[in-house]
Amino acid sequence: MDSSLPKQQPFARWHLKSLFIVLIILALLIGSAINTQAGAEFSWDQFGALWVKMAQPDWTYFSAIIGPILQTIQMAIVGTVLGAIISVPFALLAASNIIKSRVIRQVVRFFLNLVRALPDLLLAALFVAVVGIGPMAGVGALTIFSFGMMSKLFYEAIETIDEGPIEALTAAGANSWQVIVFAIMPQVLNSFTSYFLYTLEINVRASTVLGYLGAGGVGLYLQVTLSMFRYDRTAVVIIAILIVVVLVDTISNRLREALG
Prior knowledge:
MetI-like fold
């Protein structure tokens, strides 16, 4: 019976191909670490001293960051809502089952790709340069970021809908607006809401970092405490950020699970 089985080559028997791939990856990682001098100036003593200082938070500073924490949440909510509103018409224009013109779809999708290519930190820096330091810069950056993300998610959801209701309303003489309101939106509303909540989670986390660049919120206090070497207060800011992010993520996950 054994003689009927195909004989494995030594190269396959010892998994030399997989071993060769692993060695190449390790060589690339080591070479990249050497070229970038990763960890060359890392000080374990300084790292340990930093953690010792942060292990003794100045809890009296917590009252000073309640307002900025609320401002951070407000920035995330406003930016997500504005981004969602703007993204809906662009999602409709990019959906292949709504817009039959390939030229229009490709132009809209190319524009959306350009928007998504801009990182949120770059957007924050641009808005800070335009409107100055404050929450307005953060709202603007989060709006553009949310618009780019949700537009893609929305038009992909629209392309998966059942076209039966669209054909029925069109045959009955409904105009484009009526088709969108009564045939398309009811089918994608749950998906839209789920994507909105998912984007809100990301924006809450992002808004804390954007403030570090001067875009408002609690991130500004993170930058101030670090620059003043008040690591005991930095620890309070980080703990507050963690609490907010965990709460928002938990609430968002429960809501998205309820939507199915």
